[in-house]
Write a structure and sequence with these properties.
The chain is mainly β. The protein has one domain: Rubrerythrin, domain 2. The protein is 10% helix and 35% strand. Strand 1 and strand 2 form a beta hairpin.
């Protein structure tokens, strides 16, 4: 399966529709981070991430 990233919230999944927000996903994305504790993560705060999981750094 090919990983896809949501254009709206950057969540990485294998689905055509984002399981987090219902947005459209894309196969064109670069880099990713894994957020384990979004409440303590400075990067998650900067990116506006409010859940734990895998997130793309850039989605096209």
């Amino acid at each position: 399966m090919i990983d896809r990233a949501c254009k709206a919230c950057s969540v990485i999944s294998n689905d055509e529709v984002c399981p987090n927000c219902g947005g459209q996903t894309s196969r064109e994305w670069q880099g990713y981070i894994v957020v384990i504790d979004h409440e303590k993560s400075d990067i998650a705060k900067k990116m506006g991430i409010t859940t734990n999981g895998r997130f793309a750094l850039r989605v096209r």
